[in-house]
């Protein structure tokens, strides 16, 4: 594999995720960065300062003719950039959410299929050994499931500034929700049939039609139900900010968070500490047959290591011609659910899918 020519990659968007992905390409000999794209001139890590930064994506795409475009810009540009890349003959990695509408997400998938190129969406938890384990243990329990999940972030300073930038286009329950709804969908395999959402604007620093606290409920065809909650900002409570819990008639599997973790620490969002398996089975005396089992997940990858794993998967997808049909369909499905929740927040009505 090392003898193969490196994949020439253009990295668009140099925010938190874009810089992490650029570092992953820089450190992987299977890739060669041909250019960076960002409208402003950001402060870059020393390893990235040798690459030329271009202000305009379309010009850089035409001039540099990369093999792969890595799109880590604001959500409202994802679809147009991805389609342009496919039309130029490139493979595409795009950060989640894939698009800001279901129609745009489907347009991107159609462009990938028409071009015969690979589309990988940034569902980082799919590359995390502990989340893979959580999904595996939950599937063993069997449906119907109750999913209880949240990720609230008490943010201030630069983190709150980032959150306010994200909320120019995307609410927290869409931006973060796609990850955790994707986990629900991987566990149940059932189709979502109804979505309900509620939200509240808790800050005058965001647009009048945006909300920085949201809660969604989703009902699945197999009877499973789930909720996801996300809040961003200086007013958000850190009490029970991280809940990742799956219940079924046979028991429950949960991620148990380090009690000292802080909600705006990016590594906290993926680190799992302990996976606790509870079995509901009782003996003749009505008491539990076995104690809860704690699986300690040692040597977990941090945020940068996860980005490295994600881009290693991108490389495999191209070189080994992996079938990504399910990957793309799942990305559209989780986005459909989160956008339905956003619609429900704004209309006050449940959405049938």
Describe, in plain words, how this protein is organized in 3D:
This protein has 353 residues and is of the alpha/beta class. The protein folds into two domains: 7-121, Rossmann fold; 126-305 and 334-352, Dihydrodipicolinate Reductase, domain 2. Helices cover 35% and strands 25% of the residues. It has ten helices and 16 strands. It has helices spanning 16-27, 57-64, 78-87, 102-115, 129-141, 157-166, 172-175, 177-188, 303-319, 325-347; strands at 7-12, 31-37, 53-54, 68-71, 91-95, 119-122, 146-151, 153-154, 192-200, 213-220, 225-233, 242-248, 251-256, 274-279, 293-296, 351-352. The strands form two sheets. Strands 7, 8, 9, 10, 11, 12, 13, 14, 15 and 16 form a ten-stranded mixed beta sheet that branches. Strand 4 (68-71), helix 3 and strand 5 (91-95) form a beta-alpha-beta unit. Helix 4 packs antiparallel against helix 10 (325-347), helix 5 crosses helix 8 (177-188) and helix 8 crosses helix 10. The chain is globular and about 75 Å long. The mean pLDDT is 94.
* Level-1 CATH class name of the largest domain: Alpha Beta
Could you tell me the strand content as a percent range? 15-25%
CATH superfamily of the largest domain: Dihydrodipicolinate Reductase, domain 2
Gyration radius, rounded: 21 Å
CATH topology tier name of the largest domain: Dihydrodipicolinate Reductase, domain 2
Number of strands: 16
Shape: globular
Would you identify the CATH architecture of the largest domain? 2-Layer Sandwich
Termini gap? 44 Å
Low-confidence stretches: none
Secondary-structure element pattern, one letter each = EHEEHEHEHEHEEHHHEEEEEEEHHE
Helical fraction equals 25-40%
**What's the helix count?**
10
Average pLDDT over all residues: 94
